[in-house]
Write a structure and sequence with these properties.
By secondary structure, the protein is mostly beta strands. The protein is built from seven helices and 43 strands. It has a 22-stranded antiparallel beta barrel. The chain has a five-stranded mixed β-sheet with strand order 3-8-9-6-7. A three-stranded mixed β-sheet has the order 14-13-18, with no helix packed on it. A hairpin with a 2-residue loop joins β6 and β7.
Length: 743
């Protein structure tokens, strides 16, 4: 895409980022003996350090999230180059790890503590990953490469785990923070958070409560049938989380959590490719609503020789949105403004029981069983909109019939997807010598998948075609799948500070069904089903502390072979989208991470990734899209890097000043395999930079911040359909103040 001539400015932006980092680092001549904090992770479902885990892991601390105000999925991904989020608005995200990106079901598993919150990928190729805001977090773990043995089918290319702060049973504490910012050529943006930790019974029972909210920040200007509406994408997000923890006995602990969040966008969250940055010409209004309820319980019993853990969680999510589909109506000469309404009700009940050993000998293992019930009910309707208000006169088919506006329904349906899955897993670790350790993991997965679609109104002309009077069952498919996932790893402790490892692992995601009958009615031949796709990953890496543990680095090199990838196909008329299986692909990649604490004042973490993801053979004719051996996989940049640098200056025993910068670069990527596809566009590279400065005194923290310093218009998400090229981006240059207090 060519929204602006950014490439000529790339070197200048790199220089700006380096200059900002240099400003934050200043002199380190008087370096003291300091060490990088050792991070404990639970990637293997037992506590281990990052250095001792034979897999590539990224970890972002809660402090880094709070200090950079990276509370959303899209913004936290700026802190680590190994994870990419294609954001399509407040509640619609696709997470990509190691270049494994395609339509169909998600390729990355998403966990909130022990709760499975992975999206179901229902909306035209988007994962629909939920955007629960990341307030009061302990850390985020990014587990790279297949995680199928311990985390299941949704973790084909990796797993992202959000780990929250749990109640402190001994110490009472409170904190709050608030921020206000000005958005260039947009509306003001406000953000707040409050946290309370209360021991109820010392050492036995405690609670932790968090409340958060965002408001404003709109910057998209919409010209609706000749009437200008500025900054229509104001957002409102508010949520709360309550956690209770009870240390019933010295060995037995129970933690219960409940979370509620509402997210709303007032209007269109994208701009038109043809119109340029921040300009939208859709004639209909496009509001978005997302409500999430999440409940979980975790019970841990320490038996001395190991820990038994039982978990249960339930997520309920309701989405309602409207998207303009007038370009499609124009292509069919319908002569109306068309609003596409969609409502999704998604539930996910999951439970796991496992045992993690703490034996004295060389053998350790984790073993357990997992069960989940996922269900999604979706209603869709293409409705005639009023040209004056940009709103349809009714919602979905039943409401249109009941209110006397049945003729406004151009095309509508309801659908249901159910996935009942069961898995057993085990991962065994054996220490052959003090230095040499082997790991063998396996998971057996079985699932029953049901899909049903009822056409309530087949595609019709709003004036000349009759109204459908009876529902038609157009899709009713039940399938079963059984799969195995494997993990083999070897680790060698070269020294106390350096570990070398190699790993071979597999992953997959379930298949599904297409509404081929509905496609046939429009003259489109679509496969009735699409199959599971699978991959194998081969990886070697090194993890090491050096310079008296002032620095910690991770380097990994990997190769992924991906077969039968699920891809989204749009018919030549641009009206019907379905999923098909492609041929074979590969990904070659290198990842590098460096964390440093060279002085008490200076700290940093910098990472870079190289990802070369391509087709390894021509797509078969059944793929219904053009792709040839050597074509790059869509939406995956070759180069990415990200980093944070912080410098603190103690002015006195109670007063400290600080300055920090964070930066994130993503290289060029493409929307399809090659230029023979009608929807092939180039997504330009971009560099985002943020800076912060302030002082801390007596529990108070007051500072200023600037995000998107260079006022980029990054293409962080793109929706390419028969309705055109729609670009989702981040806020323009945003400057503000932030104040917080802990006591």
């Amino acid at each position: 895409m060519r929204l602006s001539n950014r490439r000529g400015r790339f070197a200048a932006r790199i220089s700006q980022a380096v200059a900002l980092a240099a400003t934050a680092t200043v002199s380190v001549a008087n370096a003291q003996e300091t060490v990088v904090e050792e991070i404990v992770v639970t990637a293997t479902k037992r506590e281990t350090t990052m250095k001792d885990t034979p897999a590539a892991i990224g970890a972002i601390s809660g402090d880094a999230i709070r200090e950079s105000q990276a509370f959303s999925l899209e913004s936290f991904a700026r802190l680590d180059p190994s994870v990419q989020v294609n954001n399509r608005g407040v509640g619609d995200n696709q997470i990509i790890v190691r270049g494994i990106a395609s339509s169909g079901k998600p390729t990355v598993g998403l966990y909130f503590d022990e709760a499975v919150i992975t999206g179901l990928g229902l909306d035209g190729g988007s994962d629909n990953q939920p955007n629960i805001q990341l307030h009061d977090m302990e850390r985020i773990e990014i587990l790279k490469g297949p995680q199928g043995t311990l985390f299941g089918a949704g973790s084909m290319s990796g797993t992202v785990r959000f780990i929250t702060n749990t109640p402190d049973l001994e110490k009472q504490s409170f904190s709050f923070s608030g921020a206000a910012a000005s958005v260039k050529d947009g509306n003001p943006f406000y953000q707040g958070e409050a946290v309370a930790n209360l021991p109820i019974i010392d050492d036995k029972l405690g609670m932790r409560a968090v409340v958060w909210g965002d408001s404003g920040g709109g910057y998209i200007d919409q010209n609706r049938n000749g009437t200008q509406h500025d900054d229509v994408n104001d957002q409102s997000v508010w949520g709360t989380r309550l956690t209770l923890a009870s240390q019933i006995t010295e060995q037995f602990k129970v933690t219960v959590m409940g979370l509620y969040q509402e997210s709303d966008a007032d209007g269109s969250q994208y701009f038109e490719f043809s119109e340029g940055p921040y300009r939208n010409i859709s004639p209909t209004q496009e509001p978005f609503e997302d409500e999430i309820k999440l409940f979980s319980a975790i019970a841990d019993y320490d038996a001395g020789f190991g820990t038994f853990t039982g978990t249960v969680s339930y997520m309920d999510r309701d989405l309602n949105f409207s998207r303009d589909s007038t370009p499609t109506a124009n292509r069919f000469n319908l002569g109306v403004d068309l609003a596409y309404h969609q409502a999704q009700e998604i539930s996910n009940l999951s439970s796991e029981f496992r045992f993690a050993s703490t034996f004295d000998g060389p053998l350790q293992f984790v073993t357990g069983a997992f069960y989940a019930e996922q269900k999604s009910t979706a209603r869709n309707a293409a409705l005639v909109a009023d040209s004056a208000t940009g709103l349809a006169r009714c919602n979905f088919h039943a409401d249109c019939v009941a209110s006397g506006f049945a003729r406004d329904d151009i095309n509508s349906s309801t659908g249901e997807v159910t996935i009942d899955q069961f898995a057993i897993f085990s991962e065994t670790e054996y220490k052959f010598t003090d230095k040499f350790t082997g790991t063998l993991g396996v998971r057996y997965y079985t699932a029953d998948i049901g899909q049903q679609t009822i056409t309530t109104q087949s595609l019709r002309h709003p004036v000349f075609s009759p109204v459908q009077t009876a529902d038609v069952l157009s899709l009713d498919e039940d399938t079963s799948e059984n799969e195995m996932s494997y993990n083999f790893a070897l680790a060698y402790a070269l020294t106390n500070d350096t570990t070398l490892y190699s790993r071979v692992a597999s992953g997959f995601r379930p298949g599904g069904a297409n509404d081929s009958d509905a496609a046939a009615q429009q003259g489109v031949i679509a496969p009735a089903k699409y199959e599971s796709d699978t991959l194998w990953s081969f990886e070697v890496g090194a993890k090491s502390y050096f310079a008296n543990r002032m620095f910690y680095t991770e380097v990994s090199v990997y190769r992924i072979n991906w077969s039968d990838q699920q891809i989204s196909v749009t018919d030549p008329g641009g009206t019907f989208v379905y999923i098909a299986n492609a041929g074979k692909s590969y990904v070659n990649g290198v990842e590098f991470q460096l964390n440093g604490q060279p002085t008490d004042a200076l700290s940093f973490n910098i990472g870079a990734t190289y990802t070369d993801s391509r087709l390894s053979e021509d797509l078969p004719s059944t793929a219904q899209t053009s792709g040839f051996d050597g074509d790059r996989i869509p939406y995956t940049p070759k180069w990415s890097f990200a980093g944070q640098v912080t410098y603190e200056v103690p002015f006195s025993s109670s007063l400290t000043g600080y300055a920090s910068t964070n930066f994130n670069y993503r290289g060029v990527s493409y929307t399809n395999f090659n230029s023979q596809s009608d929807d092939y566009q180039e997504l330009d590279s971009y560099l985002l930079v943020g800076v912060r400065a302030g002082v801390r005194v007596d529990g108070w923290d007051a500072g200023i911040f600037v995000d998107n310093v260079t006022d980029e218009t990054p293409e962080i998400g793109l929706r390419v359909t028969g309705d055109g090229y729609r670009v989702y981006t981040t806020r323009p240059l945003t400057a503000g103040v932030r104040v917080s207090k802990s006591f």
